[in-house]
Amino acid sequence: MKKITLTLTAVLAGLLLTTSAFAWGPGPGKGRGYGPCGNAGLEKLNLTDDQKAKIEALQDANDKATRPVREKIFDKSAELRRLWLQANPDKGKISAAQKELRTLRNEMEDKTTALRLDINKVLTPEQKDKLANSRWGGKTGFGPRGGMRGDCGFGAGQGPGPCLGMGMYQ
């Protein structure tokens, strides 16, 4: 009886501690990592109201289109973790899950590329130059993948950009 009580207490404590982390949600820019730290790269461009509305619509459409893929990535990552935690991991199952995960991540990257190209069409030539000079999507910091990314520290966004942290997908 004492073991059950202790186990239930530990599980409840763990749930209580993690719920606050989930309540905060993704980092800056509504979790959109399409520029340095979300939309911060775009916010420095002095966008017109029309441009802001178009970009917001593009981002919302992209969020809806990529939600199923993000969920599949999350599920496949959890499955892969479970496969690795087995007493005798099955090499074939792990390889298949990794291949599927890579395919899903490639699909996400393709969709993000399409979004960035669509956003680029909304911008004026001057804004494009300013964005290019702000290292939108470029690597910053130290190390082969940029190390510390952008102005926001360590991987605060989701998706390509200097804040490449990819959130829950890694």
Can you give a write-up of this model?
This protein is mostly helical. The chain has five helices and no strands. The chain has helices at residues 2-24, 40-43, 49-85, 91-122, 125-133. The two termini are 39 Å apart.
Low-confidence stretches: 25-31, 33-37, 147-170
How would a crystallographer describe the biggest sheet?
none
General form: elongated
What's the average pLDDT?
Answer: 75
Strand tally: 0
Percentage of β-strand residues: under 5%
Given the helix and strand composition, which structural class is it? Answer: mainly alpha
Could you give the distance between the termini? 39 Å
**Gyration radius over CA:** 20 Å
Helix-residue proportion? 55-70%
Give the SSE order as H and E letters: HHHHH
Quaternary organisation of the protein chains: single chain
Essential attributes:
170 residues; mainly alpha; 5 helices; elongated
In short:
With 170 residues, the protein is mainly alpha-helical. The protein has helices at residues 2-24, 40-43, 49-85, 91-122, 125-133.
Break the fold down into its secondary structure elements and pairings.
Layout: H1 2-24, H2 40-43, H3 49-85, H4 91-122, H5 125-133
Helix pairs in contact: 3-4
